[in-house]
Amino acid sequence: MSELSCTPTLAGLIAYEDAIEQLVAAAVPLTGRLEVDLREALGYVLAEPVMSTVDVPGWDYSAMDGYAVRAADCAVGDIVLPVSQRVPAGASPEPLATGTAARIFTGAPIPQGADAVVMQEVCEPTDGAVRIPARVEEGGNIRRRGEDISAGDVVVAAGTRLLPQHLGLAASVGVARLTVCRRPRVALFSSGDELLLPGQPLSPGKIYNSNVFTATALLQTLGCDVVDLGIVEDTLEATKAALKRGAQEADLVFASGGVSVGEEDHVKPAVEALGSLDMWKIAIRPGKPVAFGHVDGTPFIGSPGNPVSLFVTFLLFVRPFILRMQGRGDWRLRPMRVKADFDWPRPDKRREFHRARLELDEDGVGRVRVHPSRSSGVLSSVTWANGLAVIPEGRVLRRGDDVAFLPFNELLA
Predict the structure, then answer these.
(1) pLDDT tens string 98-153
(2) Distance of alpha carbon 141 from its chain centroid, rounded?
(3) Which pLDDT band holds residue 413 (cuts at 50, 70, 90)?
(4) Domains and CATH numbers, the chain
(5) What is the SS3 string spanning the chain?
(6) Which candidate, 90, 412, 1, places its Cα nearest to that of 222?
(7) 407, 358 Cβ separation under 8 angstroms
(8) Phi, psi angles (nearest 5°) of residue 248
């Protein structure tokens, strides 16, 4: 695998834009499709568009409870019309006789000859008849055939990650099964002899492995199947064995920890021994030592082991890579522009994605605060935050300045 031609900056660091563009360019859409029942399709990515074979609605229908009439019969207003039929939803009404009204309910088909519905609140029913006190406009309170969807329309595009509303829309045009892309399989492991799983007794020098739970949940949120390779001991051979197994069993290998250059960091030399390290060290904070490469032809992404760095670099790099693997086109970040509710007097040479909290002030203006800690080990900061403030390289910010904000509800969808 040839090296990606990234533009270096800051003594060999790669600019964020170059890193993300070339990382995503290396993502190969998955092959393999399957057909699933509509009830099982949630979270899959649609492989073939859903096209409607019917009009929705399939007929003109009443938008409310009331009386279906001919507008010409009510041209002068304050008229009493005999009620000739009752039309509930699901009925097949008779044509409306001239000079009569039909009692009709929301969703019921409009009788042939009727061209308006008068809401029941303005009508005065009498024995077998109804008084309509005002002039009626033709077309009032009628929903027309095909007003929502016409036969032949694409109602859900290929590449869409299926949410509840998409399934409801497919059902509304009578589609019972969908052709979807298979779920990406992602092999996941954590490096570190200091790691223990929750539930084990905590001994001196040990910490609980939060990264595996954060990463697993992030992958599942994207609709991935996770192959958990567990905690890998800090040796080159163990790291190589985990990488080889992950490359055989998954479409992507994702590792947390061991990507730096310390004596106990073995991921970089292991990837280089088994394949290629195509990109390393990005000009961002947190998460500078993000690694990307291939092991036996399978893509590999490695994040730092600090829990905040893992969380942030997953959102910035792993998420768009997986979206492209799924054939989705919505991988680019879509920051909001809001007002800074903080000062940033000492700029960094790297772009910072800082944990932040967006709130509306009393005037309804979005203002963002940043967490007081810049430590990538303070995992509680990402539960305090509801997004990331993007602070450009070399930028001094003052309270009230515009700042880019990436909301978690976008990044975790």
Answers:
(1) 999 999 999 999 999 999 999 999 999 999 999 999 999 999 999 999 999 999 99
(2) 36
(3) confident
(4) 8-31+183-325 (3.40.980.10), 33-56+150-181 (3.90.105.10), 61-143 (2.170.190.11), 336-411 (2.40.340.10)
(5) CCCCCCCEECCCEECHHHHHHHHHHCCCCCCCEEEEEHHHCCCCEECCCEECCCCECCCCEECCCEEEECHHHHCCCCEEEEEEEEECCCCCCCCCCCCCEEEECCCCECCCCCCEEEEHHHCEEECCEEEECCCCCCCCCEECCCCCECCCCEEECCCCECCHHHHHHHHHCCCCEEEEECCCEEEEEEECCCEECCCCCCCCCCEECCHHHHHHHHHHHCCCEEEEEEEECCCHHHHHHHHHHHHHHCCEEEEECCCCCCCCCCHHHHHHHHEEEEEECECEECCCCCEEEEECCEEEEEECCCHHHHHHHHHHHHHHHHHHHCCCCCCCCCCEEEEECCCECCCCCCEEEEEEEEEECCCCCEEEEECCCCCCCCCHHHHHCCEEEEECCCCCECCCCEEEEEEHHHHCC
(6) 412
(7) yes
(8) -80, -30
Quick one: which of 58, 70, 107, 59 has its CA closest to 87?
A: 107
CA distance 69 to 137: 10
pLDDT tens digits for range 1-17: 333 444 445 667 999 99
Q: Are 278 and 1 in contact (CB under 8 A)?
A: yes
| Mean pLDDT of the residues in the chain | 92
Give the pairing type, strands 101-104 and 79-87. Answer: parallel
How many whole angstroms separate alpha carbon 49 and alpha carbon 165? 15
The sign of the dihedral angle between the CA atoms of 245, 246, 247, 251 is positive
Half-sphere exposure at residue 252, Cβ-oriented, CA atoms within 13 angstroms? 29
Q: Are 115 and 71 spatial neighbours (Cβ–Cβ below 8 Å)?
A: yes
Write the pLDDT tens digit of every residue in 54-80: 999 999 999 999 999 999 999 888 899
Q: Report residue 289 as tokens.
A: 């030592």
Q: Is the pTM of this model over 0.85?
A: no
